# Entry
Amino acid sequence: MRWWAAVAWIEQLLKEGAKLVDEIEVFYAEGKSVSADLKRRNVNLAVSSADCGLAIRTVRKGRIGSSNTNNPERWMECLKAAIASGNLATPQAWDGLPCPAKGPVTDTLCFDPALATEPQIASRLLSEMLEGSKEHPAEVTSGSASLSSASVTLANSSGLYLTGRHTGVSVSMEAIAGQSTGSEFTQSCFMDIDPHSVGERAVFFASRSVGGQDVLTGLYDVILSPIAYAELLSAVYLPALSGRNVHAGRSRLATRLNEQVMDTRLSLYDDPSRHRGLGSALWDGEGVPTRRIDFIRDGVLTEFAYDLRTAYRYGKTSTGSAIRAGASGGTAIGNHNLTVDGLRSDIARKRAIYVHSVIGAHTANPMSGDFSVEMSNAFWMEDGSFQEPIRSAMLAGNVFDMHNKVDGLSSEVRQIGSLVLPSIRLSGMQVIGK
Amino acid sequence: MNLPSGVRYYDLRHVTGHVTLIDIDNGVVESAGTSFFNKALIRVLGSHGWGVLEIDNFNPGSKRKMGGLIQSATRLAAITRQDVTIADAPHQALAVPQMQEDPREVDLEEKTRLLASVEKAAALPGIVNRRANYIERFENIAFTDSSGTEFSYEICRSGFNILAVASRNGNVQMGYERVHSIRGFDLRHREEYGKKSAERALSLLDARHVRGGRMRAVLDPELAGVFAHEAVGHASEGDLIQEGNSILAGKIGDRIGNEWLTIVDDPTLPEFGFEPFDAEGVEVRRTEIIKNGIINSYLHNRETLAAIGNGVPGHARAMPGEPPLVRMSNTFIENGDASLPELMEACRTGILLKGSRGGQVDPGRGIFQFNAEYGYMIENGESAGLVRDVSLSGEILSTLHDITLCGNDRAMHPGYCGKGGQSVPVSDGAPHILLENAVVGGSGMD
# Structure
């Protein structure tokens, strides 16, 4: 495999770098993927992609430089660009890149050897999804299936040399019935997804939303599905837990450490070792071993997330929260499998408005947490089942404050990207009718 | 030209370039450096649909190598079942507008110093964080296709953002300014934007929440531009029409707004969404989506034009190394003839809304949401009291009838638009407009 052929130039790059700077870190990723897209019920497009990315970071007297390219043959130029960028950076406290630790040097937590990036498999996933879409009366408008596989290498001048292998599969479908739309998706690192149910759910939401009624403006009990909850949490809550934002004054939680910030029956933690979690990892993007991070324990804020740079600067310890975005990305503070846990109850028994997803979550105010969004696939829910659909209404509130109005969490959870979330029932939420 | 067996058409779009980023956070230069990239996309139209190769680090190489890649893409196309045809379209390339000052002639140190002075200008009392970013992205695009089209161009998009955060007793507010263009280096003497972002953040500490409900609203050019983009632009994209996922499907010739209302997408304008030709090498043209209140034209690529007609091709756009989709470029509401004081007078009692963090639309359902950063309540034609975080939602088919006055002060604002996992540079614009029956979402209880 080319993966192993990469080793020679990475070692040369480390050696060259060591002559020029105090420390150097090299991240190299190589991957391939196939995908196929539906237009209505037929495959319109099949894509095969081969990508690679090299990211170099250098440290000299506390000045951190970085550069990246998807052209590894130009590693020398990339190294020079990294050093040049370091020359302009403000020096900071720096206590070294991580050294090799005991334990495995290859991470395969998110790797399925049985997952093959073959167009015929993408085609089969689409067929299964289309089968599922026959269960309810709605038209499929589009759909997609993709399979990917990647190898990564992380090495530094302290002797760290780690590799990892990742695989992924995802499918999605959109459907329409009259003027009601519905969509569904799923994603896994393993060949364990159920495309049939994705197709079924997409047409279910489209067809079940037909004939929606208006709702009067007022305060209502609202159940956010894991999707709607994820949209709001990612826009607002996650950035507020980043140590960098906290120390920079960009987090509303900055001054609340050891205080109660949400309902005491709720906890929020990052669990990098979750079985088959989409973000599971033995170490983070800088090679720091990952660990569970209890951000909020029984409603009390106990910890923030740190990478090396932020930890060294503010006298903290890295929480193993450095995440690499894409093949040629640098690192940023993020999370692995962020989990909301706590009081479980039968949240769908008493009448409430169920919101499957929202339109415009990214327009929430990331500092204050205020949002007002349009609801998608909203229904009255009672006795555990969907009742009358709601045609159109807005939902307004504050992502931080709504965690003090929690009436319970569903027992089933769903993984959406790097989040593991239940449905959440909130009381007295502002709904604006049309 | 002789095409290999089973191939009806192919094209190659090869993009190389570099990106310079500077990030200054509370006076600390976090990073200031350059990265470079090389991506290509080969598309083959097989006997049914498309086979596509996305290639990182592409080396054009020999004819034989290209032949091999076309064969691989053709094998992929074999799993497609939809019978795709592509319409004939004129191929022509516009000249890229010249930059006033080429950013390559300014060294990184000077750029960093200039950005730092914008960032410093936001350091007013009460401001707890300032963050300034500079971005400069050079792209060299080379396009060839099986009919002999061969175009290339270089374009640079550059600019900066400044964010100021104000905090008081747990109330955290932000002010945000951005300046981006294709017209070259524009970072000198821009301290006013730093100050403006800080003043906004501070004033929002005292702003109220708006009480949700229906009201009359005056939208500023930036917000009205986002409105045009979400309410009309997306739903007119040919691929969504083709999929049956737009409420505007089958509605060409229908009246949707007042007779003086015209909404346009124009990639030829020298604004942030400018393209000299589209991602299929097709000539770009001004497209009047709504003309005098009537639904006039969809936005198309070659495939969607062939499939559904009623519109103009030249709207295929793609990120480097990604398949082209039908996209907007520079989208705007044409000027009317009202002045701003006339609009305010006509509004009497309502809300004046400014700035935007964007919006989103469900084109099949015909419902959109967009957000204003702040606004002023209007009483008797005068502003009265600042409000913050105002979102609006609307229904595509009815909302344009509610534009009852259009100003004469159109301005364009740069931004990025996401679709299908791809983000492309666009601009949106409008004059000030008066919108009746706006549904405002707010949690204010007073």
Summary: Chain B has a mean pLDDT of 95. The first strand of chain B starts at residue 9 and ends at 25. Helices of chain B lie at 63-77, 108-120, 191-204, 221-233, 238-243, 302-308, 340-347, 396-399.
